[in-house]
């Protein structure tokens, strides 16, 4: 087999091979299963995670389920695509859906969720004191891990209400998808940890004993912290932890409960990626970490996969044809050879095709030289256009081959992970029609995979 034939065969295999090297993820079976109560879409930023979550929610609703989509993405694309002016901490009904189900959507308001936790676990007087505390206001607005913890808190609240039979979660855009899982533990450990217990000890002891403890046991530490943080901030911290001691004692308990909920059989994790080296490298890391955490991973959604309608034409043959068109003196003689249209071997010969063409032209040409020139210009324009299209096709075939090689590396490393390919759309998704199209492509990827030979 020649190098050209080998390249042609490889490109044809790349163009025609879809999902043959790995298990296939059946999206509709996942969404239709009444035992599936939570779907968590995780992955790095910029891979279509929010759009995937919205498309899954819409498809599940139009197949009869009552769905709420919780997004933590601050870009607010979800609201725009669902025809809602804005999303907030309250689930909003999405209008325009088909079928018997319902679709609701909401966007996590981190501070409002934190406030709701305070109001739910404290009496009105204590809640007012905590909400007004400067340290609490800073903590609730941007403390490391707060967003991820509040996402878990909100997920626990939604699940406890039993109002929806499916919750789709769009996790925060982070390089480490497991921040969503780790942050609640970190924040819970901080609020229930040794430093907090030390700071709240004087309030617990009370009276002279408490003052003695504060004056003797805390003097060195408070002096050091006062220099580092500032005296007023330290007072705010001490006031905050004293007020929240009984209120937030269950932080770790609730975090652990939600963590176990995510490990339960009714939860399904979907890793979302694009067919790019960095995105699939991170997807592989997510898969391994989820497995280490005993989280129920159901598969990988591979977005923006490119295809071609002319897989039988290899990149090499397309480039050769483009070169032939670009140089009018070159003709394709087949078998990888090229020759000259007006070579000495044929020019002037009465039996040559050129001579016959010339004779025919003399006999039939009735047009003026200007008409002939116009016709030649048109032919050259067509040739240039065709050559450009052939080069574009070659670039597309190279892209397909590169995507497939990247995908193959992932599936070779993780053959146990079911995969669904989602063909790239020509533009962005802005409405429910676009989300339906994504949902159809998710389902069609599974159907294509079932009919593809292994």
TrEMBL record:
Bias (Polar residues) ranges: 343-353
Gene Ontology MF term list: ATP binding; ATP hydrolysis activity
InterPro entries (UniProt xref): ArsA/GET3_ATPase-like, ATPase_ArsA/GET3, P-loop_NTPase
Highest taxon of source: Bacteria
UniProt-listed Pfam families: ArsA_ATPase
Residue span of region Disordered: 328-381
Domain ArsA/GET3 Anion-transporting ATPase-like, residue spans: 36-305
Protein name (database record): ArsA family ATPase
Organism: Streptomyces misionensis
């Amino acid at each position: 087999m020649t190098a050209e034939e080998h390249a042609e065969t490889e490109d044809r295999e790349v163009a025609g091979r879809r999902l043959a090297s790995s298990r296939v993820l059946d999206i509709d079976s996942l969404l239709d299963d009444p035992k599936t109560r939570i779907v968590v879409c995780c992955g790095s930023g910029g891979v279509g995670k929010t759009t995937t979550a919205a498309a899954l929610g819409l498809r599940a609703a139009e197949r009869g389920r009552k769905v709420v989509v919780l997004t933590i993405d601050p870009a607010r694309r979800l609201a725009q695509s669902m025809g809602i002016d804005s999303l907030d901490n309250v689930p909003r009904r999405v209008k325009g859906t088909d079928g018997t189900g319902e679709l609701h959507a909401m966007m996590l308001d981190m501070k409002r969720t934190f406030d709701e936790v305070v109001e739910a676990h404290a009496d009105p007087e204590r809640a007012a004191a905590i909400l007004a505390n400067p340290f609490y206001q800073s903590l609730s607005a941007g403390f490391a891990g707060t967003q991820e913890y509040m996402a878990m808190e909100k997920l626990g609240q939604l699940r406890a209400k039993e109002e929806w039979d499916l919750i789709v979660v769009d996790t925060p855009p982070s390089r480490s998808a497991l921040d969503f899982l780790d942050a609640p533990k970190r924040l819970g450990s901080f609020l229930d940890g040794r430093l907090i217990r030390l700071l709240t000890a004087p309030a617990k002891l009370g009276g002279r004993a408490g003052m003695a403890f504060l004056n003797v046991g805390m003097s060195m530490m408070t002096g050091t912290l006062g220099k580092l943080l500032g005296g007023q901030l330290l007072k705010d911290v001490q006031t905050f932890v004293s007020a929240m001691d009984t209120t937030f004692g269950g932080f770790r308990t609730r975090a652990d409960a939600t963590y176990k909920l995510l490990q339960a059989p009714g939860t399904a994790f979907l890793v979302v990626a694009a067919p790019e080296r960095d995105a699939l490298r991170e997807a592989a890391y997510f898969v391994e970490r989820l497995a280490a955490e005993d989280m129920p991973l159901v598969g990988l959604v591979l977005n923006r996969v490119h295809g071609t309608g002319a897989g039988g034409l290899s990149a090499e043959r397309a480039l050769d044809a483009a070169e032939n068109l670009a140089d009018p003196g070159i003709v394709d003689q087949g078998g990888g050879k090229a020759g000259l249209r007006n070579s000495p071997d044929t020019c002037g010969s009465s039996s040559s095709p050129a001579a016959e063409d010339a004779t025919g032209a003399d006999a039939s040409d009735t047009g003026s030289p200007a008409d002939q020139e116009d016709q030649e210009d048109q032919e050259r324009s067509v040739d240039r256009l065709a050559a450009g299209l052939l080069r574009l096709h070659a670039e597309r075939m190279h892209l397909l081959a590169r995507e497939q090689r990247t995908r193959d590396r992932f599936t070779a490393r993780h053959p146990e992970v079911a995969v669904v390919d989602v063909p790239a759309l020509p533009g962005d998704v802005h409405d429910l029609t676009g989300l339906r199209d994504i949902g159809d492509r998710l389902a069609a990827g599974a159907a294509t995979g079932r009919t593809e030979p292994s």
